[in-house]
Amino acid sequence: MTEFRFAVNVLPKDGILDPQGRAVEGSLPHLGVDGVSHVRVGRRVELAVEAGTESEARATVERLASEVFSNPLIEQFEVELNRPVGAAR
Fold it and tell me: Can you give the CATH number for the domain in which 56 is found?
């Protein structure tokens, strides 16, 4: 078995109200930051999965992302493979 590291990025779906993103965007001019728009705030979940192949590990992560980490009615997610455990930086 090999250990694979993944990250799941979860964001509100397009068209879904994102009050946290709007609050961040609204505060930026007070910090002297101009020209930033369309701020969306989400979350990131990082995990390691032991599996025989990358595709088996990815299938596990996809299932978790759709059933546990996100609400499919209002959120979308993206799965990314991270550097393998023990890999050189």
Answer: 3.30.1280.10
